[in-house]
Every structure is written in C-alpha cells, then in structure tokens.
Automatic annotation (TrEMBL):
Listed name of the protein: Zinc metallopeptidase
Lineage per the UniProt record: Bacteria, Bacillati, Bacillota, Bacilli, Bacillales
Transmembrane segments: 6-23, 117-139, 145-165, 194-220
Keyword annotations of the record: Membrane, Transmembrane, Transmembrane helix
Keyword Transmembrane helix included in the entry's annotation: yes
Length: 227
C-alpha cells in the first residue's frame, strides 16, 4: 500500500512537471526562431480574425509570460508581451491558437459552450470538494466523502471537456497560419511542436485529476465495504 501510494505521488508530481518542462522548452526554442512572414503575434491574430470576419474581436497586450488567453466576455484576444510584439514561430502559433478560441466562440462550438456551462459547478467543486473529502476521510463518514467526490467529479469533468476545446483551437490555428501564409511549409513542423507542447499541460492536468478522482473512489469503496 505504501509503495503504491509512493508511485501514485510520484506520478501526480512528475506528470505536470514534465508537461511544464516540455512547454517551456518548446517555447524557449521557437521563440528565438523568426517566422518567414516576420509578422508580430498581434498582427497574426488580427489577420486571422479579420480573415474570418471577426472584426469586433480585439487584440490586446497583457502582462506576464505565457499568460495568453481569449476572453469571451469582452471578446478580446490577450497576448503576453513577448508574443504580442514577437516575430517568432512560437508567437505566431500561440496567437493563432487564441484566435482559434475566438472562432469557436463565434461559431458556438459545442464543447466550448459545455465548458462555459460547467464553470460555476467546477468552481464550487474545486473550492469545496476537499473540505468534504477530508471530513469524510478523517471522520470515517462515507456519505460526506461521497458528496465530496461528486463535487470533485464536476471539476474533473471540466478538465476533461477542456481537452477537445484546446485541440480544436490548435487545429484551427494550424489551418489558418498555413492558408494565410503566416508560415511556410517547412515551418509547419515547428509550429505543431509549439502547439502540441502547450496542449500537454491540459492533458497532464486532466490525467492528474482523473487519477486523484479514481483514488478517492477506491477509498470510498473500501470505506463502505468496511461499514
């Protein structure tokens, strides 16, 4: 049991660290490689948005490193300073990926809508599940533990639903940068490496969440068996 827990602990720590290592490595490498079009990330985002009729979506600079995101409330693509001003393959890939989310929003992409609907439930699950779980385990209250698991399952579902949203945005990004001439054919491999590395963070988060949920379900079944 102790050895099994050790393996589990190593996995939930190692998986996210490995994903972060891959992301930072790919970003560091390809942020130094200028794209053939030499367009800034902001220009790439604007070009893709305008080419798809999304004139109302803004492009803004935001602080931080790899803080790039699309804000569906204000209809704004926000790019970190290095990607907003950068001319690199990495900047183009990340800018295009965030525009992919804007395209999903415009088309009311089903998984994106589902994820948005899950936000309030997932927030509640993330904030309160562990309180219920700890009480359930420490006080040997299986029903309290089960309630915590149900709340946690909502947060895990959010992580899982995020995967098709992110992969779809990356696929859209590749299609756009190729069709609009932002990158050349020989740059497709480099662009895919950046997008795939970024996707690993979501895969890792989902994998860890599913592992943790599975462990808690096993604890619950053991507890009810003892009762």
């Amino acid at each position: 049991m102790g050895f099994g827990f050790l393996i589990y602990f190593v996995l939930i720590v190692a998986i996210p660290l490995w994903a972060q290592f891959k992301v930072k490595g790919a970003y560091k490498k390809y942020s130094k490689v200028p794209s053939s079009s030499y367009m800034r990330g902001a220009e790439v985002a604007r070009k893709i948005l305008d080419s798809n009729g999304l004139y109302h979506v803004g492009v803004e600079e935001t602080r931080g490193v790899l803080t790039d995101h699309y804000d569906p409330r204000s209809k704004t693509v926000r790019l970190s300073s290095e990607n907003f001003h950068g001319h690199s393959v990495a900047a183009a890939a990340i800018a295009a990926h965030e525009v992919g989310h804007a395209m999903q929003d415009q088309e009311e992409y089903a998984f994106l809508r589902f994820r948005h609907a899950l936000v309030p439930v997932a927030n509640i699950g993330s904030n309160f599940s562990w309180i219920l779980i700890l009480i359930g385990i420490l006080a040997s209250m299986s029903q309290m533990l089960l309630l915590g698991i149900i709340f946690m399952a909502a947060a895990v579902l959010f992580q899982v639903v995020t995967l098709p949203v992110e992969f779809n945005a990356s696929n859209r990004a590749m299609d756009q940068v190729v069709s609009l001439g932002v990158i050349r054919n020989d740059e497709e491999r480099e662009t895919k490496k950046v997008l795939n590395a970024a996707a690993l963070t979501y895969v890792a988060a989902a994998a860890v969440a599913v592992l943790e949920l599975t462990r808690l379900i096993l604890i619950y079944t053991g507890m009810t068996r003892d009762e």
